[in-house]
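Appendix B. Extra example for self-study. Work through it before the problem class; the solution is given directly after the inputs so you can check yourself.
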Amino acid sequence: MSVNLDKAKLDYLREKYEVAIGLEVHAELSTKTKIFCSCTTEFGGSPNTHCCPICMGMPGTLPVLNKKVVEYGMKAGYATNCKILNFTKQDRKNYFYPDLPKGYQISQYDLPICREGYVEIDVQGRRKKIRITRIHIEEDAGKLVHDELTHRTIADYNRAGVPLIEIVTEPDLSSAEETIIFLEKLKSILQFIDVSDCKMQEGSLRADVNISIRPKGSKNLGTRTETKNLNSFKSISRAIEAEIMRQIMEVENGREIIQETRRWDDEKGVSYSMRSKEEEHDYRYFPEPDLPPVIFNEVWMERVKSSVPELPEARKKKYMKKYNLPEYDADILTSSRELSDFFEEAIGEKSRTADRKTEGRGESKTGKYENNIAEVATTVNVKAISNWIMGDLLRILKDRNIEISDVTFSPKYLAKLVTMIDKGVINANTGKKVFEKMFDSGKDPEIIVKEECLEIITDESYLLEIVKKVVEQNPKSVADYKNGKEKSFSFLMGQLMKETKGKADPQLARKYLIDVINTL
Amino acid sequence: MELYQYTIHELSRMIKLKEIGVYELTKYFLNRIKEKDSKIGAYITITEEEALKRAEEVQKGIDRGEFNSLLAGIPMALKDNICTMGIPTTCASRMLSNFVPPYNATVVEKLYQNGAVLLGKLNMDEFAMGSSTESSYFKITKNPVDPERVPGGSSGGSAAAVAAGEAVYALGSDTGGSIRQPASYCGVVGLKPTYGAVSRFGLVAYASSFDQIGPITKDVLDCAIVFNAIAGKDEFDATSSDFKHPDYAEELNNLYNRYCCENECIKSGILKGIKIGIPREFIDDGVDEDVRKAILKAAKIFESLGAECEEFSLPIMEYVIPTYYIIAFAEASSNLARYDGIKFGYRAEKFEDLMDFYKTTRSEGFGIEVKRRILLGTYVLSSGYYDAYYKKALKARTLISRDFNKAFEKYNVIMGPVTPDTAFKIGEKTDDPIKMYMGDIFTVPVNIVGLPAISIPCGKDRNNLPIGLQLIGKHFDEKTILKAAFLFEKVVLE
Ligand SMILES: [Zn+2]
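Solution. Structure tokens for the complete assembly:
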């Protein structure tokens, strides 16, 4: 902004206006194959290697709708409280661009899969409902890559035909902060129900932002602009702030807001007008004649609905209420579906993990151990398990740069480990060693402890023998302790632990040490 | 009789009895093409080398007993909008003049499985848009009956090749009459199957909700034999139907056995119970006198076979031409958007920027009729005009379907001429697209409703030009129209 205004003045102006923000969110679906052909949807790959004549739009080829895409769209709808009609159809959106193989995009116009839903967010301690206008399925376009060396633009169609859902909201958001909270929530929902990995850096989650302002108290929405090319939450937040202030300055300077599409330049922190309303494409939507309408039967709809897992928010509540976990723990444990499932399986919570057999991905690693849940369910120390997951487990994952899905040991083994510590079979320090061994080998902790003789030494005569040995070998420390030097006692305990390789029952050891010293 | 005059079923028997070899037969047809096609112009591409190689392979297969199809070893040709792997598929357009598909159309795969031998690719109106094959980028095809006249279109090359004996049979495509009208003009048989009966995968789209591939043959039995081979559900075409098709050729053979028995009573009652409706709008003033007479004569023949013929009124016919052309052009404008010079096909050499690249590529790559249809189609879909044109046409389409289906509650077959007139002179209608479009009036309703219809020769006009009889059936009732056409053919031959 060229105008020099102090912060107070800016804040004052900002306070004069209300902001209405609506979003068009595109999320790439994580189906194994593309929406209309059997090419892989995998990200990356050399240019134009994940393509076939169908997704390249070659003459005579026809699309065949991947049923999984419809299911994923439905799941997204169920998870965002949408209405789902039992009839949907595809339409063609016509425009020319080199990344669009057919000269039209197969999308949905007047009969989207889902409509009229909502997502609730927490803003400054208050619940707010953000209405979802619609969710529809469509195909992604390819990518144009500009080659700086040759000054040529090259088309890569690997992404062409990757399935997307577009989620359109009502203009219910009123700040950048709210928008980011909403997007975080939406992202966690989509990840949780396993329809999208929502990786912004790979472009699998993208958002266009519609913004309008109006004087506080005014009922009518102002003229809106649409801002595109937002590649991270940070750029979305910055672009919204900038656009709000741009619009305020326009109005303050007596100019009208023009309905237009703007392009955000994240490096410069400025947006530019791409095209005005008059220059908007006329997409000439019409029903896609190559694809018959999809008619859902009740059984299918029910099956899809029941495959939608409990959402993070419900799980969080459950962790706090049923298991008395602090909110901090509950937040971390529900931060991803994998982590939450892992935790639930460890504590023996009956979850819907069996439904995770999604297309192409097969059985999830954590899903395999479900049968054994019952045996640990009653006795398990939930808070301790939570601590282990939040502490050691996440630390190792981070150190080794791997995912929870790479964990090879059964979640119920973690419960076993915790129980062994609680029952005093091993001490906490040994527990850490066992955990690492369990992580590396996937072995049952009981077997590890047995194989490596790691049980706590509770044999009194054996322990007493070692205590005597330590006292004999360290007369100076014993004397110091007797002279009131508390520190020397810790040293002696340390020596004792060293002798027993940390396996001595600390309470028992302490008691014997005091006893032996006192008899001297 | 010369070899080129034989039908599929006759040649198939000769191959089986080793009276002729597949290589010899193929060579014969290749020679005949060399001899005849300079005058007819049916072929865009002749695949001589591939055909001879294929003929040897198929002969070996036949000798090993690998084929049990009547199509094994029979030389045929394809309209050039049906994709053939490794063989140019041009749609008779400059735009695709260099296009070689890396895949076969499903129908091509099916014919190959049946042992078919491909002779080449046939001329057509550019992108199947036209009724005379005059809009081809490459050449004008002449009607073998009268070289001064058009063979019809858009499958003009297919009909001309079969009529001239340059292929035993051919496949065409029918969007608004493009199989039936040229078959009628050239005096051969053409079947437009029910929408969804034959896979469209690999057929370069003109108007997707109308397009259908079908056979052009010398007689009705051949038509049934080819249709047997190409019909059926295809997982690569979502609009193809899983309807269980009967063996159409066997149905006709059974019928023939009954027809040939000495009992005159059976003969005269063989179509008993079949009700044929003739819409008055199909034989009114707009129809050539000779054509009308031929149709009424055909009605008498059907009556002699025991069928009941009756005229009825179908006033919705008034709307079929605008309805058809609005929807077809709208779909075409979108279907042809992929020809942008980026990925395949013709591309402009000189251009300033991206927009100019598109404009120049498409201006130079498409012919005038294609451009006209793209512009009109774009117009009817544009905001502000969509409701007045496209949406209204969709409503009319529903009404037309309703009225036809209502008529089929009463009749098993609807009958009329294929066209109001016979083959016209080359150049006669090129300056008057509306006149050209009006000639499609009796064929387009079949595509609008998605019905099956067959075109068979039913006499000659005063200029000795063939007249075509059109029999329209209910959805997926190809069996009835094939039977009726088959018996009609037998009576006329006697
Ligand atoms: Zn593909």
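Self-check: The interface with chain A takes residues 81-83, 89, 91, 96, 99, 101-103, 105, 200-205, 207-209, 235-239, 330-331, 333-334, 336-340, 342-344, 354, 358, 378, 381-383, 386, 390 of chain B (CB under 8 Å). If your reasoning did not lead you there, revisit section 3.
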